[in-house]
Design brief:
Elements (H helix, E strand, L loop, with lengths): L1 H9 L16 H4 L4 H18 L4 E5 L1 H12 L5 E5 L8 H12 L4 E3 L17 E3 H16 L8 E5 L9 H9 L4 E5 L13 H20 L1
Parallel strand pairs: 1-2, 2-5, 5-6
Antiparallel strand pairs: 3-4
Amino acid sequence: MRGLALALAGAGLTVELPLLPGHGTDVADMVPTRWEDWSAAADAAYVELAARCESVVVVGLSMGGTLGIWLGERHPEIAALVLVNPLVVPPDADTLAFIDSVIDGGDELAPGVGSDIALEGAVESAYAELPLRAARSLFAAAADVEAALGSVTCPILLFSSPQDHVVPPVSGDRLVEGVKGPVERIVLERSFHVATLDYDKDEIEARTVQFVTDVLAPIGA
């Protein structure tokens, strides 16, 4: 997300890029964390930013997109959301049951899902392993977020990658169907899941800056 954050900052906007609990260190730090930890950190970052800014737009990728929608459901004053391949629809019951059986069998970690990127040489800063209990808490939260989509009324800029090997594009479809606010959806034909590091990263940055400045312009007028 750093490139996108720098693009927004370069446009003269105040930007916060919080590091969520368990992220950016070692996978052992992620193992005990759950959705409640990440959502509390995201909410605290939003509240702090909102206290010193006239209006706030929330931008998120993947689980960060889920958190962005969650914030939008709880803070109707949020000006807009920018979402890149957000998780909205959790895995089906059979998949969840399989994950539970793996956990019950004593395995706490699975192969990681990082660096789903089409651009050769681009690498995501991600753990090589996926903590299953943490992932399970995300999937449970995604179901709650999906159920409350109708409470989101702010404008949304949605980026969707048809060739996403981490979050099926049906999550984007469900978002468009469920929210009450206007959605501008941009299809990223060349990029995989981590589109902010992929072929379309420049387009994502440019369109996000334009969208955010357009949304905030009437507020600052």
